[in-house]
Amino acid sequence: MMQIHNLSDENSILNTFISEIRDVDIQKDSMRFRRNIERIGEILGYEMSKSLSFKTQNVTTPLAEIAVKTIDNDVVLCSILRAGVPLHNGLLNYFDKAENAFISAYRHHLENPETFEIIVEYLACPSLEGKTLILADPMIATGQSLLATFEALKPFGTPKEIHLAAVIGAQEGVDFVAENFPKNTHLWIATIDKELNSKGYIVPGLGDAGDLAFGEKLQH
């Protein structure tokens, strides 16, 4: 079964950043919104790092040599454009030696506005064979975008381990991801909301993360 790490189960400064990205008045400051998503990514990365592999490395200071433990994983950080960019930056601040992958995935609404399919168009990715894949998407609504992204990445190799990083997820979407990803997958998420509305948006959620970070887009 996928391991779910819901960071809101414990009180921390993370709750302040979550409250600000939800607040309709603070959301008007797009730069602060992006920075808060980035800071949440940093916290997710820190917590995630505790589960990774470490090796002993000797470091020479101006006064002596000392043995320290450093991460021993070959990390590939993959984000879903465009909403995933601030979250990607936060994770990259901590996994600064990671290779990077980017993929576009968006909802294409059919004749019924309440139904949609996930379209994947752009993908740039290094080899994933035997590496640690961190797949970042700020919002897990239905979970279909994450699954479509994972399927698109399969031709690039089989990762040694998979970590998902998200800011807010609906319980329905989290359950869907848990059922469809490999059993050894870890989900690191800032908080989980109870439901989706009829259009597949998280309630209470925060709105459209991509629009709040980068401005409104033309619809397909």
If you had to describe this structure to a student in words, what would you say it looks like?
The chain is an alpha/beta fold and 220 residues long. The chain has one domain: Rossmann fold. 30% of the residues lie in helices and 34% in strands. The chain contains 6 helices and 12 strands. The protein has helices at residues 14-22, 30-49, 85-94, 144-153, 171-180, 209-214, and strands at residues 3-6, 54-60, 65-71, 75-81, 99-109, 116-124, 132-136, 139-140, 161-170, 186-193, 195-196, 202-203. Strands 1, 4, 5, 6, 7, 8, 9 and 10 form an 8-stranded mixed β-sheet that branches. A two-stranded antiparallel ribbon has the order 2-3. Strands 11-12 form a two-stranded antiparallel sheet. It is globular, with a radius of gyration of 18 Å. The relative contact order is 0.18. The model has no long low-confidence stretch (mean pLDDT 92).
Task: Give a nutshell description of this structure.
By secondary structure, the protein is an alpha/beta fold.
